[in-house]
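ESCALATION

Customer reports they have been waiting on this structure for their group meeting. Please prioritize. Original submission:
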Amino acid sequence: MSQTKMATISHKVAKSRKVKPSHMIVHVFLILLAVVCMVPFYMMIVYGTHTNADIASKFIFLPGEALIDNYQYMTENINIWRGFFNSLIIAGCSTALTLYFGALTAYGFAKYKFRGNKVLFWFVLATMMVPQQLGLVGTFRIMYLLNLLDTHAALILPAAANAFAVFFIKQFIDGTIPDEVIESARVDGASEFKTFHRIILPMLAPALAALGIFAFIGSWNNFIGPLVLLFSNEKYPLPLLVQLLQGYYGTNYGVQYLGVALSVLPILIVFAIFSKRIIGSVAIGAVKG
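Update from on-call: job pushed to the front of the queue and completed.
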């Protein structure tokens, strides 16, 4: 390689490494935006370590010493870890049903061309326009007829019919899975369900990971559904138990902040683990779109 060419390459590398003012402005703005987003979570955790008198009398920015006392008061009146277990069962099973049946339904709409396919698909999408609160009336009636009221199944089974999951996964299938893959499996003698389970589902992993996070967070934070369909305290998930703290302690904000902080902690962990999957899924959709 000639010296002139090497000098040109070195100049381009040096130029590419030079930080532009516009990039610095963007980075500073993003850092400030991240700080603004993190402050409410930080304050929630900090307030959970202070007494009610400290929170009511002054502005607090540093952790206090009342964390153990607040935790003891909370566990003496509500079974917070039972609520964790209930939320984990409800959110985990609901997410699994949403992903499997959402993928199965979306696969049918995307790859099976039958009469009324588009009309039925648009009908499914139209159900997304119905507020969740209105759907609870019908859900309550169905669960009453099935004798499933005051059970976790009343919250888990409706997750199998998730219109947003069908729409999200169908868009992913349309953009990433060619018909030739399915035809090849059929030529090799694979059944329709075997093709779906062995070939299609693994290919849907990025979309399922992103959708799984949304479904898990939505089910974990669900407050109205358990409030209507559950009647026993020992079956309550975390959002309802945190609400009970307000009834027990009145204005004891330290205990309430600690309860809220514990309830959102699993969501932050799940998001931290699978956040790269969300970005990857969005990037794939952007390229194919």
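Sent to customer with the following note: Residues 21-72 form one domain.
Escalation resolved.
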